[in-house]
Amino acid sequence: MSTERMPNPAVLIPEAMEALMGVNRAIAGAGVDGKLLALTHLRASQINGCGPCVAGGVHQARQHGVTADQVHAVAAWRETPWFNDEERAALALTEAVTRLADRPDPVPDPVWDLAAKHFDQKELAALLLNIAITNAFNRLNAPTRQQAGKW
C-alpha cells in the first residue's frame, strides 16, 4: 500500500481548512436533506477514489438515515430499487458534475432538467456546492495519498 506523501494541504494551511469548513457549514444550513448531501458526497468520493472521503461519506450517510442497502449500492444506484426519484436526480447530477471532462456536454439537459424538477434554485445551489466541495477535498486527498481512518 502506498504511504501518505504529506498532510492534507488544507491542514498545513489552517485558514484554507477554515474556509472549506465554512462552505460545508453554509451547505448544511441551506435546507437540503442531509441524506442527499451524504449520498452525493459518497458518490463523488467513490468516483474519485478518495478513501478518507468514502469512509467519511459512509459515516455521514449512516448519521443521516441512509439505509445499509443504499450505502452498499450507491455506486450502482441505477440498478437497484433502493433510491427514490429525488435521490436518483441528485446522484445523476453528482456523477455528471464530478466527471466534467468525460463528455462534450458535461451536464446534459436531461440530467439538469431532472434535478431542476426535484430541487429549487437554492437547493440546486447547495447540491452543486456540496459536489464541488467534495471534489475539492478529493483532489486534496488523492494526490497526497491520504489514508482512510487516519484522523
Automatic annotation (TrEMBL):
Pfam family, one: CMD
One term of GO molecular function: peroxiredoxin activity
Keyword Lipid biosynthesis tagged: no
Domain Carboxymuconolactone decarboxylase-like: residue ranges: 14-95
Alphabetized UniProt keyword annotations: Oxidoreductase, Peroxidase
Keyword ATP-binding listed: no
InterPro entries: AhpD-like (IPR029032), AhpD_core (IPR004675), CMD-like (IPR003779)
Protein name according to UniProt: Alkylhydroperoxidase AhpD family core domain-containing protein
Organism: Micromonospora eburnea
